[in-house]
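Reader question, answered in our methods column.
A reader sent in the components of a multi-part assembly and asked whether the whole thing could be modeled at once rather than chain by chain. We filled in our standard form and ran it. Here is what they sent:
COMPLEX SIZE: two components
ENTRIES:
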Amino acid sequence: MFGNLNSVLRERPWIISIGFAGVVLALWQYATIQSWFPDYILGPINIVAEFVAMFHRGELGDQVGASLRRALTGFAIGSGIGVVLGLLAGVSRVFRDLFDLTQAFIHPIPKIALFPAIAVLLGFTDQTRIFIIALSAFFPAYLNALNGALGVDPRMIWVGQNAGAARVRIFFQILLPASLPRTVVGLRISLMVSFIMMVATEVVGHSNGLGAGLMRAYEEGVYGEMYGGILAVAICGVLSNAALAMISRRLLAWQAIGGVQRG
Amino acid sequence: MIELKGVAKTFQRGDHVVRAVTSVDLTIEGGEFVTVLGPSGCGKTTLLHMLGGFETPTKGTVTIDGQVVTGPGRDRGMVFQDATLFPWRTVSANVAWPLEVNGVPKRAARLQSAALLEKVGLEKFGNAFPGELSGGMRQRAALARTLAMEPSVLLMDEPFGALDAQTREIMQEELMRLWQESDLTVIFITHDISEAIFLGDRVIVMGVSPGRVIEDFKVELDRPRTAEARNDPRILEYRSHLWGLLAHAPSSPSGNGSQIT
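And here is the structure of the entire assembly that came back:
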């Protein structure tokens, strides 16, 4: 009888994922109903209710708008520069040596530690926050693009030189697509990091946005709004990640066909 | 006419210097089909890369019709062992690429690409991606892409080395046909003795440690050559002669002196 169940699960693996999440949520809800947790921990149903109420009051829309603008602007600037410099460093020894030491020193610093230093210059402003987000998004994009470019068969580039293609064309039409599978991995990490830094930079200084909302709810002791905000951050992260995953699947559709070429 | 004068190439490998090619003098006439035969590590690939302008000789010069080769060019089309097609472009877009580089508008490039694919027998596979093709079909597509540059010289680096025996023979015969219909000069690298004899007007035999030319051998088989030529009794003679040369050549202690990876 389990053979039948096995084959059903193999064809629909999402049953397992959703089933597990459902069990965790149900246990959590049950625990709050039984008052096993202190009062400030809300059950999932209460959190969703809180979230819907915030949404209807209209405060969530503004927060989400402000936060997403920061996160996505920072992500676009940081990862865009990261990909271009990473690919350049991957094909040019000079570029690689140029960035290597600087990169190695700045990379291990938790970027949030630079927040006060940048704030001295620019104040606790949007520019400071976007700068910190961009700086954090830069590294995963840079390192993965670099490794992607290093892994490109040099003869692919030779094919371009053989045809007399200009460097810019070789960069965009050969190097970029050839290192795309690896570059996309970097972009997805960069996006996640951007969301983390979005919240981290918003809780400090007088800001608006989801992070600031969370902090205010904490200070005022309205835990319902705090959890509603956390849920909103999670939903933004999941949806952005899904959008990026969809775009990369389209760009990398060729990869799914017939597997990888020999050599 | 292609001329190599005192061409040598050395690489620095850690502490020691690898002499990949030493002092090669060679003249190849326009329209000739020359095969270069040798064991791995004899510098044949390095020699081809220097002809293509992808590597520069440490000593000596490579000239084509009196012009010194200083870099890659569309006059010398390269075909690599594994096809190096762009896996993100369809077969037809791959073949059209060198045309687009040359400023041919997209539509016209696609039309020319279709004609080239027909020439190599891939007319039905233009919309396929390289990942969907067999090894032999990928080499046909790569050949079509190289021909799109309208080169006068084809530089082929063991292009059929990874194919199964039967496919390899079919590809050899098709290459023969294509070359006989054209005025291309072909320089074809191989480590397969029968392939070197069947295809070449001349077989340049290279030896290892250091990489050098040990014989410049003329193949007297009739032209135009078809599959029939494989039964020519002279082939046996040639084979045993070349076998002898390769067997008595000293073997390389480190091997792979000519690999680029």
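What stands out: Chain B has seven helices and ten strands. Chain B has two domains: 1-75+151-261, 85-149.
Send us your own complexes using the same form.
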